[in-house]
Amino acid sequence: MLKYALPKISTEQLPGPKAAAIIERRKNVVPNAIRCIYPCVIERAEGAMIEDVDGNIFLDWVGGVGVLNVGHTHPELVEAVNEQASRFFHGMFNIVTHEGYINLAEKLAAIAPVRGNTKKVMFANSGAEANENAVKIAKGCTKRPNIIVFSGAFHGRTMLAMTMTAKKAYAVGMGPFPDGIYRAEYPYLYRRPTGMTEKEAIDFYIDNLKMVFENASPAEYVAAIVLEPLQGEGGFIPAPIEWVKAVRQICDENGILLVADEVQSGFGRTGKFFATEYWEEVGCAPDIITAAKSIAGGIPLSAIIASTEVMDSVQVGTLGGTYGGNALACAAGLKVLEIIERDHLVERSAQIGKKCIEVFNGWKDKYEVIGDVRGLGAMIGIEFVKDKATKEPNGEIVNKLMAICAQHGLIIENAGMSGNVIRFLAPLVITDEQLNAGFEILENAIRECI
């Protein structure tokens, strides 16, 4: 079975002949801006493994960029979608009610660590849509115009989400951008100001946030502070809990809503079902959570979760959309929740993460090019540098590693503002043997590059 296979490249070169022909056709009809550097044209996939059109088998450490926590084509997920498809595909939820939407909303409301005695859920189709709707809800609730986001943030590629996103390589030539989005510095402790202790650095980043009120928008005009519990595109950087406590206090003191973008970090990825459970444990639950990616195992779906009070403060008619909460997606979402709970994938995430941290830290001790290893659960980043003393980013070696690993059947992806972080997002159903095979391919590639 492909699910239990190991990486194997059987063609003389990559891409193979069939894949090369399809990639050439892609160039003729797909915008160059939607780029792909990987020599793989997928034919079928199971678990953590992909087979391409030429019969090459790849180990997937990207998982659709965090979409496939339960693995590729989980058979029960396929069955659930087929069963729903046999009854009906779609009925716009503003027009007809379907029980799948209600069932999934009830389950997410019951487990989401957001403030409030009762909670409500709305569904959209993507992470960017979820974040846009979270901003709409925050503005509708507070009647305030402005939003604070952070350096390193990634919130999507729609116009508002692109404005909220820090890395402007994703927004070249797209301005002018919406007003009312202001940015503070995210606590990137590995790159904190020279000479500061971690505690001093956290105080520094808290002061930086407060300065936004002085230099950009007074606090009374801020509707929400939006942040990722563990930055994704920014370089897999966890938000320090002591800093989160301070942000929560700032929000409470100023009537600002705290929005957690869990698009990439949710659904078991971080050793908790939601990464914000770590916040909840210290009394700092957010007011709104956005979720997407692994919510439905590969079918487009996203969610916005908040208290009844917050949700119902929004003007009737301002929320909704044609495909939000599509019946096929909700059926998939319900099955994903069942699989994660029954198969203990949250616990498996913690086990995978522990093993990865052990291995990656071992490499950090051996190789001068690895400057930092960090993450939560099975959401881990390896930061590559040219020199450990200067910490100069080394995006060049990461690009080489991606190419070398692909040639040996391992698909990895970069992250970070300088593209110098390798992100680990393998499906949580990955076997120990497959995990070890990936370690071997990546370490051999590192040795080849140094």
Walk me through what this model shows:
The chain is an alpha/beta fold and 450 residues long. The chain folds into 2 domains: 2-60 and 344-449, Aspartate Aminotransferase, domain 1 (Alpha-Beta Complex), CATH 3.90.1150; 79-342, Type I PLP-dependent aspartate aminotransferase-like (Major domain) (Aspartate Aminotransferase, domain 2), CATH 3.40.640.10. The protein contains 14 helices and 17 strands. The chain has a 7-stranded mixed beta sheet with strand order 4-12-11-10-7-5-6, sandwiched between helices. Strands 1-2-3-15 form a 4-stranded mixed beta sheet. Strand 8 and strand 9 form a beta hairpin. The longest helix has 22 residues, at 345-366. It is globular, with a radius of gyration of 22 Å. The two termini are 36 Å apart.
Give the helices and strands, then pairings.
Layout: H1 17-29, E1 42-46, E2 49-52, E3 57-60, H2 63-66, H3 75-85, H4 99-111, E4 119-124, H5 127-142, E5 146-150, H6 159-164, E6 181-184, H7 198-215, E7 222-227, E8 230-231, E9 237-238, H8 241-254, E10 257-261, H9 277-280, E11 288-291, E12 302-307, H10 308-311, H11 327-342, H12 345-366, E13 370-376, E14 379-384, H13 395-407, E15 410-411, E16 413-415, E17 421-424, H14 432-449
